[in-house]
Each structure stands twice: as C-alpha cells, then as structure tokens.
Amino acid sequence: MAELARFPLGEPLPAGQARFGTDGIRGRVGTVITPALALQLGYWCGQVLPAEGPIVIGTDSRSSGPMLVAALTAGLTAAGREVWDLGLCPTPAVPGTIRAQGCAGGLMVSASHNPPQDNGIKVFGASGAKLKEDQQQAIEAGLHGAGSERSPFSGVGRVRQRPDLLAAYRDSLIASVGGARLDGCKVVLDLCWGSATACGESVFRALGADLTVLHGEPDGERINLGCGSTHLEALRQAVLAEGASMGFAFDGDADRMLAVDGQGRVVDGDQILYLWGQALMAEGQLPDHRIVATVMSNLGFEKAWQAKGGLFERTAVGDQYVHQAMEELGAGLGGEQSGHILSARHGMSGDGLLTALQVAVLIQAQGGSLAQWLDGSFQPYPQKLVNVTVPDRQRRTQWQQCDPLRHAVAEAEAAMAGHGRVLVRASGTEPLLRVMVEAASQADVDHWAGHLAGLAESQLNGAWGG
Q1: Mutual orientation of helices 352-366 and 165-175 as an angle, nearest 10°?
Q2: pLDDT tens digits, 305-339
Q3: Does the pLDDT of residue 7 top 50, yes or no?
Q4: What's the CATH code, domain 2-163?
C-alpha cells in the first residue's frame, strides 16, 4: 500500500521510457507518447513547478492533441494545480502567457516538425524558458519511480478554458513591429495545417499585407505533410506564381520559420540572423555586436559576421542552449539555422510568426526586396546534412566509441585542412545520427558526406561490436 501511495497515478514508467531530449519528450503516439505518460508527466510537473500560480497548456492541431491535453490536465489537477487551457496556439504563446500573467509554468503538446502520427510535450518554467536540467531530472525521477516522498495528492485543482489569452499574444505580435506597416507587400504564408493557423493570417492582414495563404486551416491528419518549413517547394511555387516579394513557412507549432525570396531562393535561419543582426547593429541595439548561433550554422556566416567586426558564439544544437548562452553573455540575438530565432527585445522565445514579421518590415523599410538583400548577403559554404537512421540509442549517442567512424571523421578533417569541418551528432528528438560536412569545395562536401554517412550506416547498424 505504501508503494501505491507513492505512485497514485499508476505504476512508475520503465527507466529510459520517457526522457527529455533537446526539445521536451517526443515520439510516436501509442508507443512513446501515451495517455499514461501524459497523466504522470502532468502530475510530476505539478509537483516540480513553483507552487504558486496557474499552469498553462497549449496544443498544435494534431489529432492526438486533445487526448494528451486531457491526460496532462488530469495529472496537474491531481497535483492540486489550476490549469489554463489555451487550446490551439503557437508554442511561443505559452511562454508569452507565462510571463504576461505570472504563471508557474506551462506545457505545449506538439511534435514540432514531426509527422502527424508523432506528438510530444514541451515544458516551460516560471520564467517562460525551457526547464532547467535539475527540474527535468526531478520530473524524470518521479516518472521512473524515484520521486519524492511528498503526499501524493495536494487537493483537486481546477481547469479554466482561456482561449481569450491568444488575443493578447496576437496583439503582442502586432506591437512588436512598432507601428510599421506592410501595405501593398505581397506575401505568401504556408501555415502548415498547424499552430500558425490560429493567428498567422490575421496578424499579417492587420498590418496590411497582400496575402496568399497555403494550408491555412488546422488539420491534424496533414500537419507537416509536404508543407511547412521542412517542405518548401509548395511555398516556392506559390511565391513565383503570385509574383510575391517573399514567403514564409512555419513548422507544426510555429516556433520556427524559413523564408523564400521573390526568386524562389531559400532564406534560412543563418541568413535571417545576418539580416536582423545588421539592422540591430546599425541601430546600436546589438550588445557587443554579438550573435549566438549553433554548431550547425554555416562557416560563411561566421566569417562574414566577424568581418563586420561582430562577435560570433556557437552552442550545441537546441534553442535552450542558445537561450542559455544569450543570458550568460547578455546577447541580443541568437538562433539556429533551422529557423528558431531568439530576440532579447521580444522575450527570448523562438517565435516563427514574430520572426517573419520582423523580416517583412525590415525589408519593407529598406524599400527593396528580400531578393535584393539576399544578393548582397554572405556567401555560404557548401554544406550537406545526411540523416542516418540508427534505432539503437546507445550506439547512436556513443558513436565516438566506433573506431572506424571516429578515424574517418579525423581523416576528413585533416584532408580539408582548415577549409572545412565535420559535425556528427545524435538527434535529441529522433532515432537519427546527423552527419554534416561543410567545406569550401562542393566536391569535398559530397565525397566526405557520402563516405561518412555510409560508414555510419554499416557500422552502427551492423558490423560495429559496441
């Protein structure tokens, strides 16, 4: 009976079944992500997050979202917490609401850019930032049966439906451009059937943009399928067909964005940081002229920024690492090549809609076009990223112990002799080993990316003994 009292919401989960990755807990619904997991995760979040204040929940459009929100809510209320349910919303609406309303924390139900059959849960603390490592460990300990001896029930909490708070988030987006307008600017938005459908179109129309909208309704069966920031062809074709000045594509939960210029060329997170960073530098609004990026950012970007007299810092992949470095260094701007951009002036939350608005008004204010700006931007080094599926987590995360692969990486770096680099890392959200090669020569990139990815495939999924 004592054991049942310690675990009032069911048996502890097996060790390793639920672990925080680089962006929360994520996986296939019904296997990794289950109602049982969500129930216990909600309960332990209720125990670990600060005791005072409500806890906010939002979701993207996935069909499994309502089920998981219900389970999380049951767990949170079993921990005696008050829950504010925002409903369908972009991920940044959750930390925005936490900060604006003084909440204890929040959860977002989304698998970001993953396919519809996946889902995930992101957890934010009272500051609106992703949970710190010790908080994640405390929640994981509870999930796996090593939690605290606190009383299992703290009373029964209550639930409030708060879709009205999405209006405050929408208003904050409009206010972020300081009165600038987009009148007459032809823009295409790919809303990805996901979270951006909650307010993306209305925000751009409020600023006067001449809009074409793709995938503009919430549809959990089609989220991310052939659309959004990971599939840009539909956006590119629409921009060219409409003669638009620019187009913006969002991922499933709208915390990141990639752009396309009027010629159909991709503008990635590195280019966005370079554009926005230049504008802030010119205004004297970029402390120490510093930008924080990740190990994935292009070497051409780094060299061009340093040539302008700027400081360039790199972190591990993951917007929480960028956030941490920005706070420690007092940086004003940072982000990832994939389109997560963080601005200290705007709450330090990755926000695809806010970033798209900033890019659009900057280009409009310059009186030119995104294509003209891109023509004058930095020249990126050729870069290739190959994803190798490695189901065995231990092999994937400890690939450095595979001597043939480790020696091949060293050989590649020596051969490129300072004119290129290799980055091999395990994904924090998917069973993938990511092999990235970047060099001044496209031939070097193609050769070494193919060689290293092939070696990783054969060794980590077969020949390597451990």
Answers
A1: 30
A2: 999 999 999 999 888 899 999 999 999 999 999 99
A3: no
A4: 3.40.120.10
The Cα–Cα gap between 87 and 95 comes to 14
- The tokens for 45 are 């979040």
CA-based nearest residue to 87, from 169, 199, 162, 192: 162
Q: Give the residue carrying structure tokens 């051409």.
A: 300
pLDDT tens-digit map of 431-449: 999 999 999 899 999 999 9
Strand partners, 388: 433
Asked whether the beta carbons of 79 and 47 are under 8 A apart, the reply is: yes
Concatenate the DSSP letters of all residues of 307-333 into one string.
Answer: HTT-EEEEE-SSHHHHHHHHHHHT-SE
Q: Which residues pair with 187 in a beta bridge?
A: 211, 246
- Give the residue-averaged pLDDT of 274-281: 96
User: What pLDDT shows up at residue 320?
Assistant: 87
Is it true that domain 383-463 has CATH number 1.10.3210.10? no
Superfamily of domain 168-375: Alpha-D-Glucose-1,6-Bisphosphate, subunit A, domain 3 (3.40.120.10)
The pLDDT tens digits of the residues spanning 160-197 come to 999 999 999 999 999 999 999 999 999 999 999 999 99
Domain residues of the chain, as ranges?
A: 2-163, 168-375, 383-463
Alpha helices in 308-416 (DSSP H): 319-329, 352-366, 370-375, 393-397, 403-416
Residue 311 buriedness (CB in 10 A; 0-12 / 13-18 / 19+): middle
C-beta of residue 324 within 8 angstroms of C-beta of residue 358: no
On the CB side of 66, how many CA atoms lie within 13 Å of its CA?
Answer: 2
Q: How far apart are CA 9 and CA 37, in angstroms?
A: 10
Residue 430 to residue 442: CA distance in whole angstroms: 28
- The secondary structure of residue 345, as a DSSP letter, is G
Q: Quick check: do 2-163 and 168-375 share a fold?
A: yes
For the entire predicted model, the pTM comes to 0.88
Question: Tokens 């049951």 sit at which residue?
Answer: 74
The arithmetic mean of pLDDT across residues 345-350, rounded, is 90
Catalytic center residues? 112
Quote the Cα angle for 43-319-143, to 5°: 20
> Is-contact 445 420, C-beta < 8 A?
yes
Distances (CA, A) of 234 to 241, 355, 375, 389, 417: 11, 20, 23, 27, 39
How far is 384 from 423, CA to CA, in rounded Å?
A: 10
Contacts of 331 (CB under 8 A, 6+ apart): 287, 288, 290, 291, 292, 313, 325, 344
